[in-house]
Amino acid sequence: MQSWQTTYLGTRELPRDINAFEMQAFFTFEHSELEVINTRRSSEHKLGLALHMGFLRMSGRLLNAFRIVPSALWSHLGRELGIKAPDVASLRAMYGRDRTLFDHQQVACATLGFRWMNEHQRRALVRELHDEVSRCADREQLLVRARQWLYEHQLLIMHDRAIRTLIAAALTQFEAETCSTIRETIPQVKRDRWSTLLVEIRSDGQTQQSWLWAAPAKHSTRQISEVLERIEYLYTLDVHQHLHELPDIIVRRYARRMASRPPSASARIREPAHTVEVACFLRYCLFTATDQLILMVQRRIADLWRQVAASIPNAVNWATLYQTLLAELGAL
């Protein structure tokens, strides 16, 4: 399957602006497929079956909508089958009986090798999604990956609600496994301490959670000192000793989820999500604070360099300049 085809996977209707390339890719038939199409008696049924086969190849789903089919597509199918195609026609006009529509859907599936997913395949898809969760944090991307997996295994793509249910099951399973790993590696006493400290109120009126998440506004000496204070605080909690095996994308996902809520609301989150969020939040805060400190020091050094360079004459004593700069940095 080509990557550009992902756009059409799971679609329920024919695109209005289907172009010549897409018609050639999806609605051009092999000899064996033409033989199946030509077993239909009337031209209308030949066109209808060809339309269903092309749509299934394009989207991985059955065509049920009764919208008007683009005239350019009818013309293309007519040329493919060597018959006169209607200028404008809908599926409703072509099928007098629902039974014929159902029959064409079944023949299209049999010809292209598509079938409905069984229980064994459903479990396999959940396993695939479970593996994908560790690399992808976006539910919409997981939905796309599920459609791709179904199409690659020649399984009819289900309704989005059914796929999202499987995605939720995979996320729940992954979350439970992550929580189990955290509980095995971090003592209960330490985890309880982390949860308690995050909702504590500081002397400035902020909760520890809000203080740890706040981004520095500048790269002044005072701001650098505050970021250093956060890093030292996280080190006293032994955050740096844990969660090394957890992918950064997972740490970031749960940390941001916790940061998006008030601390009082985060404290009410049920297990296993609460344990995972607290551990990932502290770990991610350590990551970001360390990155912020490096960037702020780099900017501060650049500022000091410009200030020193502007305060000395053109005839520079580089040794003196170097000593002056070191003295300024030492003041930090």
Word description of this protein:
This protein has 332 residues and is mainly α. It folds into 3 domains: 3-112, no CATH class; 119-185; 188-330, no CATH class. The protein has 16 helices and 2 strands. It has a two-stranded antiparallel sheet with strand order 1-2. Helix 3 (43-59) packs across helix 6 (98-112) and helix 10 packs across helix 15. The model has no long low-confidence stretch (mean pLDDT 86).
Figure out the total of helices: 16
| Oligomeric state | single chain
Radius of gyration: 31 Å
Could you say which overall geometry the principal axes of the C-alpha atoms support? elongated
Order of strands, main sheet, comes to 1-2
List the main descriptive attributes of the protein structure presented here.
2 strands
Write the layout of secondary structure elements.
Elements: H1 20-26, H2 31-37, H3 43-59, E1 68-69, H4 71-81, E2 89-90, H5 91-94, H6 98-112, H7 119-133, H8 139-152, H9 160-185, H10 188-198, H11 208-213, H12 221-236, H13 248-259, H14 263-266, H15 273-310, H16 318-330
Antiparallel strand pairs: 1-2
How would you concisely characterize the structure shown here?
The chain is mostly helical. It is 65% helix and 1% strand.
